[in-house]
Amino acid sequence: MNSLIEEAGEPAATLRSAPAAPGPLTLHLMQARDMARWDAFVQTCPEATFFHRSGWRRAIEQAFGHRTWFYFVEQDGQIQGVLPLAQVKSRLFGHTLAALPFCVYGGIAANTPQARAMLDAAALKLAAELGAGHLEYRGIRAAHGDDPAWQRKPIYVTFRKPISASHEDNMNAIPRKQRAMVRKGIKCGLRGEVDQTVDRFFTAYATSVHRLGTPVFPKKWFRLLKEEFGDDCEVRVILRGDELVAGVLSFFFRGEVLPYYGGGMDVAREVAGNDFMYWNLMEAAVERGCRSFDFGRSKLGTGAYDFKHNWGFPAEPLEYEYRLQAAEAVPENNPLNPKYRMFIKLWRKLPLGLANQLGPHIVKHLG
């Protein structure tokens, strides 16, 4: 009996050939020619974040001089997974290979388990070759489940929440006491203004972190971020008349706004400058089409944690993972470590100008 194709008058030779089997997965390091398609993958991969974008490579290398490895896995000419890594090596703070230093999210972003496994193996191999103390993934979710080879520490949480297209609804969603602080800033005549340079923002930021006893990032770092990410990196200052009150540098990604660095002058406390700043940013983000507000990470037990919680944002634990290599334990490089308390007290007493000169030499090793 003839086949149906033959009965219909079609020669068997015209049958469509079966789809070719998928090609092999191959591992690569990102080159300049790969950056556009790297970012195209990040834009669509559900696991990817703003901190997976290719621009972090240049910013980290040029601001701090750290070595980076931006791995990707490819199959049939299509990227299937990415893993940006950078090395931070310090006698005082340890030797880390992380995805990604100076970023709150990171780790592997992949479409398939096979691509993830290949990137994982590449990172472990590199960490061993470098003699790193540990490998760190800053993922929102743990990628290795209960694997005992990977440690987790409940240090950080993040605060993310949907926002409405209605300013009135967003205002009403703020708890009453915090809403009163926002209204105070409005009554004080505060206003927001977008800058194309980081100068005024840096003044507010540097003043604020000095008050907290924290080393300052170099101004060059913020300038590089603005250069790399363009309109997706917004610099906003809050003013009372012509007086600088506060400033915030924010990232925009897939309909979400993330205020990342911020700070206020001394006057900010008197006029609820920080409260108004985040409200002003939320209003602007809504007009830009954002429907999610990411308040960023904070350490448990800190004032920043309480501030964000008071805005009605739920705390979501960040499941960072650590794989020990040469080190016996993961370093505790955070202000809650008791051994840094004296340092914080002394740093607050430094003149602001001196703190701004010394801070970048310290903070580059903290990651």
From TrEMBL:
According to its UniProt record, what is one Pfam family this protein matches?
A: Acetyltransf_6
Kindly give the NCBIfam families that the UniProt entry links to this protein: pepcterm_femAB
The protein, known as: FemAB family PEP-CTERM system-associated protein
List the lineage, top down.
Answer: Bacteria, Pseudomonadati, Pseudomonadota, Betaproteobacteria, Burkholderiales
SUPFAM superfamilies recorded: Acyl-CoA N-acyltransferases (Nat)
Question: Ranges for the BioF2-like acetyltransferase domain?
Answer: 191-308
| InterPro entries linked to this entry | Acyl_CoA_acyltransferase (IPR016181), BioF2-like_GNAT_dom (IPR038740), PEP-CTERM_FemAB-rel (IPR017469), PG_Glycine_Bridge_Synth (IPR050644)
